[in-house]
Amino acid sequence: MKSLFLLAMLMALAITLSAATSFEIEEAKSVIGGTRRFLSQSQRRVALTLTCDKNPKICLVKGSAGPDCCSNKCVNFSTDRLNCGRCGKKCSFGKICCKGKCVNPNTNEKHCGKCGNKCNAKGSCVFGMCSYA
Ligand SMILES: *[C@@H]1O[C@H](CO)[C@@H](O)[C@H](O)[C@H]1NC(C)=O
């Protein structure tokens, strides 16, 4: 009886030790592989275990698609055409999302052709190009 208990203890200890060791080896490998790899591995681990509806902070991790969370996906409200400014706000056909607002890049003087492309005071946006004619 006593030896059975001892055996069980030993096995538990062995399992704990081997788990710790393989984890340490993995960490050591990633350190050898450089910080970049270490970061991406830990990010992957975070992404596997956490979801943004429960842990919105995971969307702030470097390499995330954006800082905001919609239906469990990280998005960027500033530029996401399907979640422009807020979750589920879709930009209609032909429009793009700039700074959280749907705009028509063919005619918008502040976002002419693309986000942030401003036509100056004399120009107007025509077919997505600033025109000074
Ligand atoms: C979201 O998009 C804006 C505009 O492109 C960009 O400046 C910002 O860095 C993005 N945020 C993230 C966390 O990717």
From TrEMBL:
Signal sequence region: 1-20
Stated name of the protein: Stigma-specific STIG1-like protein 1
Biological source species: Psophocarpus tetragonolobus (Winged bean)
Keyword Signal recorded: yes
Record carries keyword NADP: no
Entry-linked Pfam families: Stig1 (PF04885)
Matching InterPro entries: Stig-like (IPR006969)
Keyword annotations from UniProtKB, A to Z: Signal
Family membership: Belongs to the STIG1 family.
